[in-house]
Amino acid sequence: MDGLWDERIAVGATELRSSAIRDLLKLTAQPQIISFAGGLPAAELFPAEEIALASERALAEVPMATLQYGRTEGYEPLRALVGTWLGRLGMDTRFEQVIITAGSQQALDLIGRLLIDPGAPVVVEEPTYLGALQAWQTCRPNYLRVPIDEQGLVVDALEQLLAKGLRPRFLYVVSCFQNPTGVTLAPARRRQLIELAARYELPIVEDDPYGDLYYEGERVTPLAALDYELHGEPRYVVYLGTLSKMLAPGLRVGWLVAPRAIFDQLVMLKQGLDLSTSSSSQTVAYYACRDGLLERHAPRIRALYRERRDAMLAALEREMPPEVRWTRPEGGMFLWLTLPEGYNSGELLDRAIEAGVAFVPGEPFHPGGGGTNTMRLNFSFSSVAQINEGVRRLAAAIRAR
User: Fold this and answer.
1) Cβ-based neighbour number of residue 163 at 10 Å
2) How far apart are CA 76 and CA 99, in angstroms?
3) CA dist list (Å): 346 to 90, 310, 373
């Protein structure tokens, strides 16, 4: 580092680490590599024509709202539309409770700035979403890790932790089709968790970017809806959502629904960050979605991703050695593969890339280390033919150990 600058870098920033996924994507950009590494939506599903028409309408009908600075809380018609969507999920949300953010990643950043001091205890699932760990790097929390199983967060293990008298700042949970494992918090555990939050006064940050990507049954009720049911308004749950998975990630439009006790502080923090989320992105998103684009578009997304998930599960059954295990997600974009003890997925990655396939090793998803024999596989981006060939290459790399 340049001597002019190194002694001036803030202490928290000296510990910044680049995302393992972003670094890996640079290596896998070559066309010959089949990448299961990213978390990218299928580009062929982007509703480009509808978004272009929405942009034209926004500029024609609300040019000042589209081109001028906007309110920090967000474009009011879009906030109201988000409230309508959440109302269908059991959250009687008024637009005054919604902050439009630059994707849900910015919402995570705001949460960290507001609630995390250096060394403060924060409860996370293990493994957990790597983007959250990145967002909170400079906050330097003390992570308290709670295991997950095929039914999601093990709430009994969380209760044992809280019974010791610890008072975490909050619990962070990806409640539906979790990134990285693809598992979903079971309905009985959701109610158990909300009751536990009330008993121990534990705030919950519920990150729900994948909830609408369900391939079996119906949309799972968010934890936040149970919070509304019990308290009539947001009390324990801060709810994060996004348009990135169902519309287009390039718009960078997400939202945060927060209890009144912290809403104003979050608005002030966001004001200091960017004044407001892009006005043009917000109005375009509103005009694209106000007439039901998401409702028409969602079945196409779910059908394609279901086909690709099924293809990956079938390829794994066909190609993998019998001692390899994996999750069977009912939605989302990822599954989690576990190798036998003694395998190291980080070391395997080099051999896999040489064979023309990429994945994300599991260790970065564990804030305390571990998971060296695991990996995350994405099925939303690759075609069925690529999935079949990529799994074949991956299985060959595993056998060649």
Assistant:
1) 9
2) 10
3) 42, 26, 8
Q: What share of the chain has pLDDT > 90, as a percent?
A: 89
CATH fourth-level superfamily of 3-47+295-399: Aspartate Aminotransferase, domain 1 (3.90.1150.10)
Q: What is the spatial distance between Cα 119 and Cα 62, in angstroms, rounded to a whole number?
A: 46
Q: Where are the domains of the chain?
A: 3-47+295-399, 48-293
Contact predicate 367/129, CB 8 Å: no
- DSSP letter string over 29-40? -STTSEE----P
Give this prediction's pTM: 0.95
Say which residue the tokens 């705001």 belong to.
110
Chain centroid, CA 310 distance in Å: 22
Q: pLDDT tens-digit profile of 306-340?
A: 999 999 999 999 999 999 999 999 999 999 999 99
CA dihedral 265, 270, 273, 275 (to 10 degrees): -120
| Structure token pair of residue 352 | 């896999």
The encoded tokens of residue 37 equal: 């590494």
Cα 161 to chain centroid, rounded: 25
> 165-222, pLDDT tens digit by residue?
999 999 999 999 999 999 999 999 999 999 999 999 999 999 999 999 999 999 999 9
Topology, domain 48-293: Aspartate Aminotransferase; domain 2 (3.40.640)
Q: Which residues pair with 378 in a beta bridge?
A: 334
Long-range contacts, 3-8 (Cβ 8 Å, 24+): none
At 203, is the secondary structure helix, strand, or coil?
coil
Q: What are phi and psi of 2, to 5 degrees?
A: -60, 130
Cα separation, 149 vs 399, whole angstroms: 27
One-letter amino acid at 323 equals E
CB contact at 8 A, 131 and 6 = no
- How far apart CA 17 and CA 26 sit, in angstroms, is 16
